[in-house]
Amino acid sequence: MVACDCEVCTSPDPRDKRTRPSIAVDYGDCVLLVDTTPEFRLQCLACGVRRVDAVLYTHHHADHVCGLDDLRRFNWIMKKALPCYANAKTGDALVRMFPYAFRDNPDYPSHTPRLEMQTIEHQPFDACGRRVVPIPLFHGPLPVLGFRFGSVAYCTDCSLIPDESYPLLENLDVLILDALRRTPHPTHFTLDQAVEHATRIGARQTLFTHIAHELKHAETNAVLPPTMALAFDGQIVTAAA
Fold first, then answer.
1. What is d(CA 229, CA 208) in angstroms, rounded to the nearest whole number?
2. In b/e form, how buried is each residue of 2-38, taking b as 16+ CB within 10 angstroms?
3. H or E, element range at 211
4. pLDDT grade for 110, boundaries at 50, 70 and 90
5. Is residue 140 within 8 Å of residue 164, measured between CB atoms?
6. In this structure, what are the phi and psi dihedrals at residue 216, rounded to the nearest 5 degrees?
7. Which domains can be identified in the chain, with CATH numbers?
8. Environment class of residue 1 by beta-carbon count within 10 Å: exposed (0-12), middle (13-18) or buried (19+)?
9. φ and ψ at 138, to 5 degrees?
10. Which CB contacts under 8 angstroms, 24+ apart, belong to 184-187?
11. What three-state secondary structure class fits 240?
């Protein structure tokens, strides 16, 4: 947190140094990126991300999209336009925010991202030949998407999981779930709410993400159930595709 001297913000534990939430799903022959945070470039440098084949967006809030311009490097590496998958509201917002990335402008004097928007809703779809299952969620009143990749589900920025989404979260090896802080918030799960929902879902491992500075990594993990823990930047998880 900017200008904060709390125990988490001044912690020497590197797991308490948090950038905005995003994941790269690496299949070996392709990488699917979920969201482009404001720290996207720094995250790629820190984690050695060397390719991105497609981008999936959960929603259009600034902390999940404002690193979009740095996708230009992956256009250069991959020698192609990158498909971006989002629901209609998120896709429209991205095109308004970054119009130069979605249409050609031969007069623009510099290299720009080359992105192709693909509108998705709630039906499973293929991204670079991999099946992805959208998971409808609510972030306060805003409908957003989580995504399931094989036995892994990523559900950031949510305060409600609709009943119809629970069957999409069955038999998971890994669930990654929003858990902002201990005190209530209108658009995010608290830690206790996240534990309750994670218990209902019953994944073999649950990692909590989108963590604010009320939660110290080691102290929080010490009181969580054995199959649950706070995630941390740069964490690598292996699961069935």
1. 6
2. eeeeeebeebeeebbebbbbbbbbbeeebbbbbbbbb
3. none
4. low
5. no
6. -85, 135
7. 21-230 (3.60.15.10)
8. exposed
9. -125, 130
10. 185/159, 186/140, 186/159, 187/139, 187/140, 187/142, 187/157, 187/159
11. coil
Q: What is the pLDDT of residue 232?
A: 98
What residues are paired with 84 via a beta bridge? 55, 117
Dist. CA 110–CA 36, nearest whole Å: 21
The rounded Cα 164 to chain-centroid distance in angstroms is 21
The answer for residues whose C-beta is within 8 angstroms of residue 21's C-beta and 6 or more apart is 35, 37, 63, 64, 156, 157, 209, 210
Paired tokens of 132: 């992805």
pLDDT, tens digit, for every residue of 8-50? 999 999 999 999 999 999 999 999 999 999 999 999 999 999 9
Q: How far apart are CA 203 and CA 179, in angstroms?
A: 16
In which element (H, E) is residue 65 found? helix 62-65
Strand bridging mode 54-56 / 31-34? parallel
SS3 51: coil
Strand partners, 88: none
* Residue 99 main-chain phi, psi, to 5 deg: -60, -35
